[in-house]
Amino acid sequence: MSQQPYQSAEYEFEAALGLPEPLPQDEIILWQGAPNWISMAKHVFRLQWLGLYFVVIVIWQLISVAGSEGGLAAGWSSVALAFALAVIGFVLVGLMAYWSATEALYTLTNRRIVMRVGIVLTVTFNLPYKTLGSAGLKLYKDGTGDIPMQIATEDKIAYFHLWPHARPWHLATPEPMMRCVPEAKKVAAILTEAWVASTGLSKKAAQEIQVEQAGVQTA
């Protein structure tokens, strides 16, 4: 099952939605979708914790001003400033999460994974299944999940070219990761089947991939 991806006039030049060029005749799209932006805000940008931090800062400022000489009557402007800055910071990070999700598009074909990512500068990464060494699945309680992929070849992608579509803290050996994918368990199964079919892996190897993907984490 695929999610209806976001379509923008910015991508009208694409040969096909999410693809830099037309697919060969023997290649077909198996799934295409974008990250869930609410899940992205929660699990990648940690917006809920940032909001709590800002609330604590504003309350602390309020208490400090109330206990100072003149009280709130004299220092209300500093509280208002702290509140305004907190709201601006929260909204900006929320917009970053929204844009990071809605401007991205993941495509699974029977031969490769295509990741179109970027907000200001859009970059498309082609990851043929034969270049992948392993893949995993981190499943969240809302059904979304992250699917990191380890590149087995010597080719590397810079971490900051991928972020936030990269496995956290793997700076030396960056791993592309499809972030906050809706119905992630189904997408992981599609990826596994396509990977096995494309690379001709043995039944034992296929079972090992399934086991790795079955070892999900909930958060």
Furnish the topology, listing elements before pairings.
Blueprint: E1 29-33, H1 37-43, H2 47-66, H3 71-102, E2 105-109, E3 112-117, E4 123-128, E5 132-135, E6 138-139, E7 145-151, H4 159-162, E8 177-181, H5 184-199, H6 203-214
Antiparallel strand pairs: 1-2, 2-3, 3-4, 5-7, 6-7, 7-8
Helix pairs in contact: 1-3, 2-3, 5-6
3D architecture notes:
- The chain is 42% helix and 18% strand.
- It is built from six helices and eight strands, in the order βαααββββββαβαα.
- It has a four-stranded antiparallel beta sheet with strand order 1-2-3-4. Strands 5, 6, 7 and 8 form a four-stranded antiparallel beta sheet that branches.
- β6 (138-139) and β7 form a beta hairpin.
- α1 (37-43) packs across α3 (71-102) and α5 (184-199) runs antiparallel to α6.
- The longest helix has 32 residues, at 71-102.
Structural class: alpha+beta
- Count of individual beta strands: 8
Largest sheet: 4 strands, antiparallel
Put simply, the count of helices is: 6
Strand content: 15-25%
Pattern of helices and strands: EHHHEEEEEEHEHH
Tell the overall outline.
elongated
Q: Report the radius of gyration as a whole number of Å.
A: 22 Å
Lateral arrangement of strands in the main beta sheet = 1-2-3-4
Q: pLDDT average, as an integer?
A: 83
Low-confidence stretches: 1-12, 209-219
Provide the helix percentage.
Answer: 40-55%
Distance between the termini: 23 Å
Oligomer: single chain
